[in-house]
Amino acid sequence: MKAIFITGGASGIGRATAHLFAARGWRVGLADVDAAGLASTAALLPAGMVETYEMDVRDREAWVAVLDAFTATTGGRLDVLHNNAGIGTGGPLAEARFEDLDRTVAINLMGVINGAKIGHAYLARTRGSCLLNTASASAIYGSAGLATYSATKFGVRALTEALDGEWAVTGVKVRSIVPSFIETPLLDGIAGASNRTIRETVVAAGMELTPVEAVAEAAWKAVHGDAVHTYVGRTADRMRFAARWMPGALRKRMRRPRG
Fold first, then answer.
1. Which pLDDT tens digit goes with each residue over 56-82?
2. Cα separations (Å) of 144 from 141, 190, 203, 250?
3. Which of 53, 122, 149, 231 is catalytic?
4. Quick one: pLDDT at residue 206?
5. Is the dihedral of CA 238, 182, 152, 194 positive or negative?
6. Active site includes 149?
7. What is the pTM of this model?
8. Where on the phi/psi map is residue 147: left (φ > 0), alpha (ψ -120 to 50), or beta?
9. Strands 3-7 and 27-32
10. Domain coordinates in residue numbering, the chain
11. R_g over Cα of the chain
12. Thinking of the domain 3-254, which architecture would CATH place it in?
């Protein structure tokens, strides 16, 4: 039986991905800081198909302990490690608190790097395994009002590309999903002095929200396909096109007053 380990599994993309992979016969390991959310996700999955772990992706010792524990239940298999945990921050950078900026970078970028570095040894034991990272449409072109979030997701995108080349010799694929803004609780996050949610920032910019189920399907496609990045939703497709062919127009769009 194939096995996937998912961080940020208590809700949103992580929950939807767990549900899809379990429904297709995979054993699932879920990690999150939200114990209640983990229990809620686990209750949606087939009995005996899931293990849950309360874990902070910033904690490197916890990474080792949890991956040891999960792979002990799978006979040593780890077919996919989904680096999905992340937090949302929005508002003008000049008004943000340093503690919010530090936390965003530590979770959204260093948490992914931790998972990649520590997870490689486990993935390398399973032929055809894959590291799957959750990036964002904000990694296509920096999003005004989401500067730090965009910076971390650009980092995730770059890490994916670098490791895809670096790990090819070990037989471990590295992929990312690049979703538009997804209808999850993360969009309600607020950081700094802006007092404005990411949801409000996204809507004000004229971008649509993508159902979380579409991202789970994209995760399945990414794991089984050859593309380094799998784009999800109309906003991601439009931003990718504009960044390549109409960078000036995209730049002007980002400069519109956000009101």
1. 999 999 999 999 999 999 999 999 999
2. 9, 15, 13, 11
3. 149
4. 59
5. positive
6. yes
7. 0.86
8. alpha
9. parallel
10. 3-254
11. 18
12. 3-Layer(aba) Sandwich (3.40)
